[in-house]
Amino acid sequence: MGCLYVIEGATLGGQMITRHVRTNIDITPTTGGSFFEGYAADTGKMWQAMRQLLVSGAIDPQTESAMVVSAITTFASLRGWCALANTCAKNLTENHREADQRA
């Protein structure tokens, strides 16, 4: 349930990203930004349903603790994946730069 909290919570962030890219670079859900839109107009309703599920699932302190540990572990995994992707992107950029200099 903690993992689900993290993933579903990302849909709220997606709403903020959707507004930002629409305002600043004119990308909408129909012009390439649909990934960030999540549940669109239903995002708030879906988040409330998720909150209800979390509350009903936290039946005792041990279960609640396991949910928290799962969420923390999921956040740590996401951070690691992003760091790895950033390292890969830097390496690709550096490799392309070196190839361009040799050409």
TrEMBL record:
GO terms for biological process: heme oxidation. Transmembrane segments: none annotated. SUPFAM superfamilies: Heme oxygenase-like. GO terms for molecular function: heme oxygenase (decyclizing) activity. It holds the Pfam family Heme_oxygenase. This is Heme oxygenase. It comes from Polaromonas eurypsychrophila.
